[in-house]
């Protein structure tokens, strides 16, 4: 081999050694940049720029990012982790993770550390922050092999916000359950009171005015119970509207009728101004009755004895305007922007003369907005009365539908079974039903007795409470529906539970109708007549 060939081999061997050394240096992290000599001249390629996005990601992420030695010493941490511990970053790096754990958490972490040397592991843990507080976290540890040394990466997620949200959700659920139970317990005694007033009204005796005043107070209490139950569900959007064509003037008349007793008690004058033409809405009639009723009740509540209240309906372009005006105590300027907020009321005195829960106007605002409308409050200040204006989109008048023939007032006696563990409610409801016709009535006070009576008595109509001892109303209903001899019985849930999920459960259990206590005499009469008219299938 000549000298030229030997030189070429030596030059090639040197280049290979240089390349191997470069690769070794790159792998060892000793090289910050490469200079490559090409046709376009020397090009500089920096390795630092290649990992910059990843460094930025680690530093800016909300979770804590930590690299650990095999014995749990902190080799690196990002700012998020040091902020979690409320420690300066330089004090955290170089310390042991165990330094930031309470004694009760040491064994738990050491077990995670041992497992994390060979596999990925996750668990909950609690750190101690610099101010002595406990920080709940979710910890993930995984091995990070570096040459012959074993290190680990640790990702730390602060659970404070998650725990706070879970606590709020659980609190809301408990509140809803409490309100549902409270409404049920309040409605139960209201049922015999209203039924008793209906019986007294039928008997007569010159006490009609007193009865009407008492009925107005019962209606007021029923409305408060309904508002209390509805408010949390409505403001969280958990109410579905049952839209149908609704004639606006009929809503006003219904709301006024329900409030007439209160107005008479306070000797207040109510002026009703309705348009000549029928104005139609695509709306939930029950919810809009709630809106109008709350506005009228609010006007009455803050207007003195003998005061003046006016409700006006009128068309404004493609909108319906509902205006409720009073000459009462008015609204202070600082309170006016807040009147629709939950639990906001005018200044209270010890006598609580205005009363109320501070939720009625919140319901009004949310229900109006659910219908695509707006509501506004106006007042010239204290002592100058107030004006509330609701605007709702108008709908086309429905096509005329031939009215079905009305059932006859009486088509023979019905066999009626009344089931409730409230003995007073059963007694007064039995009296009321007997006043509405020559019906044969049986009673029961628990689920097992109801099922036995239904089997023996074979009623046309069963009025069944849900919260019964021995066997709940849902179970009774399902068993009745399994009995072929009772397949034509009209099964009515008469209960203090009135939420949408309660109605759905009733339907699934086999109830034909779900009525919420207290039921008025008009509803009961309509129910009996409906059963009589469908006697062939009832």
TrEMBL record:
Residues 415-532 form the Response regulatory domain. The keyword Transferase applies. Its EC number is 2.7.13.3. The keyword Nuclease does not apply. Gene3D superfamilies: 1.10.287.130, 3.40.50.2300, Histidine kinase-like ATPase, C-terminal domain (3.30.565.10), PAS domain (3.30.450.20). Residues 181-396 form the Histidine kinase domain. Residues 50-124 form the PAS domain. Residues 2-29 form a coiled coil. The modification 4-aspartylphosphate is found at residue 465. SUPFAM superfamilies: ATPase domain of HSP90 chaperone/DNA topoisomerase II/histidine kinase, CheY-like, Homodimeric domain of signal transducing histidine kinase, PYP-like sensor domain (PAS domain). GO terms for molecular function: phosphorelay sensor kinase activity. It catalyses: ATP + protein L-histidine = ADP + protein N-phospho-L-histidine. It holds the Pfam family Response_reg. SMART domains: HATPase_c, HisKA, PAS, REC. Keywords: Coiled coil, Kinase, Phosphoprotein, Transferase. PANTHER family: HYBRID SIGNAL TRANSDUCTION HISTIDINE KINASE C, TWO-COMPONENT HISTIDINE KINASE. This is histidine kinase. It comes from Lignipirellula cremea. The lineage of its organism: Bacteria, Pseudomonadati, Planctomycetota, Planctomycetia, Pirellulales. The gene is luxQ_4.
């Amino acid at each position: 081999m000549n000298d030229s060939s030997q030189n070429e081999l030596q030059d090639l061997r040197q280049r290979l050694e240089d390349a191997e050394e470069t690769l070794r240096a790159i792998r060892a992290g000793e090289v910050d940049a490469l200079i490559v000599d090409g046709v376009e001249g020397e090009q500089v390629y920096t390795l630092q720029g290649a990992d910059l996005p990843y460094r930025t990601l680690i530093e800016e992420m909300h979770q804590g990012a930590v690299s650990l030695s095999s014995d749990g010493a902190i080799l690196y941490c990002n700012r998020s982790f040091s902020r979690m511990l409320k420690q300066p970053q330089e004090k955290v790096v170089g310390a042991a993770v165990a330094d930031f754990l309470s004694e009760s958490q040491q064994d738990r972490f050491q077990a995670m550390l041992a497992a994390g040397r060979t596999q990925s592991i996750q668990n909950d843990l609690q750190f101690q922050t610099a101010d002595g507080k406990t920080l709940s976290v979710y910890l993930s540890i995984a091995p990070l092999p570096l040459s012959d040394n074993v290190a680990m990466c640790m990702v730390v997620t602060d659970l404070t916000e998650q725990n706070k949200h879970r606590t709020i959700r659980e609190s809301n659920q408990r509140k809803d359950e409490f309100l549902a139970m409270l409404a049920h317990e309040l409605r139960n005694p209201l049922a015999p009171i209203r039924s008793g007033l209906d019986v007294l009204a039928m008997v007569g005796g010159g006490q009609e005015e007193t009865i009407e005043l008492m009925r107005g107070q019962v209606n007021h209490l029923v409305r408060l119970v309904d508002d209390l139950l509805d408010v949390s569900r409505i403001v969280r959007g958990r109410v579905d509207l049952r839209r149908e064509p609704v004639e606006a003037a009929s809503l006003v008349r219904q709301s006024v009728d329900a409030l007439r007793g209160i107005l008479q008690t306070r000797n207040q004058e109510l002026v009703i101004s309705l348009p000549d033409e029928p104005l139609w809405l695509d709306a939930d009639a029950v919810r809009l009755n709630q809106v109008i009723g709350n506005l009228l009740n609010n006007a009455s509540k803050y207007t003195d004895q003998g005061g003046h209240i006016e409700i006006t309906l009128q068309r404004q372009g493609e909108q319906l305007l509902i205006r409720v005006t009073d000459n009462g105590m008015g609204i202070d300027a600082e309170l006016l922007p807040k009147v629709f907020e939950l639990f906001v009321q005018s200044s209270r005195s010890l006598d609580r003369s205005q009363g109320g829960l501070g939720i009625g106007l919140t319901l009004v605002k949310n229900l109006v907005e659910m219908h695509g409308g707006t509501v506004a409050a106006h007042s010239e200040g204290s002592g100058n009365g107030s004006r509330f204006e609701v605007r709702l989109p108008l709908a086309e008048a429905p096509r005329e539908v031939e009215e079905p023939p009305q059932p006859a007032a009486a088509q023979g006696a019905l066999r009626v079974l009344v089931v409730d563990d409230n003995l007073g409610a059963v007694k007064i409801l039995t009296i009321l039903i007997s006043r509405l016709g020559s019906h044969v009535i049986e009673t029961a006070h628990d689920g097992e007795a109801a099922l036995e009576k239904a089997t023996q008595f074979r009623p046309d109509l069963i009025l069944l409470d849900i919260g019964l001892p021995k066997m709940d109303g849902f179970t009774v209903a399902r068993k009745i529906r399994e009995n072929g001899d009772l397949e034509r019985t009209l099964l009515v849930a008469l209960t203090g539970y009135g939420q949408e999920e309660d109605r759905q459960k009733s339907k699934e259990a086999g109830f034909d109708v779900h009525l919420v206590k207290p039921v008025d005499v008009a509803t009961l009469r309509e129910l009996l007549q409906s059963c009589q008219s469908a006697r062939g299938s009832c």
